[in-house]
Write the structure tokens for this entry.
Amino acid sequence: MCTRYITPDQAAIERHWHIGRDQPFRWPKTEIFPSRPGPFIRTSADGEREAVIGQWGLIPWFAKSPKLTYSSSNARSEELAGMATFKHPWARGQRCIIPADSFDEPNWETGKNVWWRFRRADGQPWGLAGLWNAWIDKATGEIVESYTMLTINANAHPLMRRMHKPEPKLGPDQQDKRSVIPVELEDVDAWLTAPAEQAASLLRVPSLEVFEAGPAASITPD
């Protein structure tokens, strides 16, 4: 599961995803962790793309508080239709794009955690698949935006299957190695607006050639 990523700045997001420059909010820090605010892209009520700032960790309708006692920063894509936290946003088509210059994953091949950093080989930002929700505080009427990052099983992927700490009680074929799900630029509109069946067809791990990855310390910042 991804728990750390770097978001592009506001101008880069607006330029890459063709979003108008009328966002009124204060832009967050670029390094995003669960429960912190981050930007995501969705379709507005008038059908245009908009960038929104929300909490990374989706707040479901039944939550009593925006501070959750469990993690909802990642969601298994195979379970969206049945999980209480995510099934309503999925059914309503509340899909989003999470912009990321890079994301980090733990590699345990040495027996200890070595963070790896993942960028796109073409130098473009990632657009990661997500769901969003708007939670309403019944006491105050405050609306709190939030989002989750979708993941998919990557046991068969030559790179992503190397990430995350193995479960010692499970054999090699029983591990559930996960990957985030990039959405290519030409598929953004389909992901945001198409019927669920069509959107679900975009839930896949990209080919190895898309990735530029290695231990974080060995990657020179731009």
Helices lie at 10-16, 87-91, 188-193, 196-200. The first strand starts at residue 5 and ends at 6. The chain has one domain: 5-218.
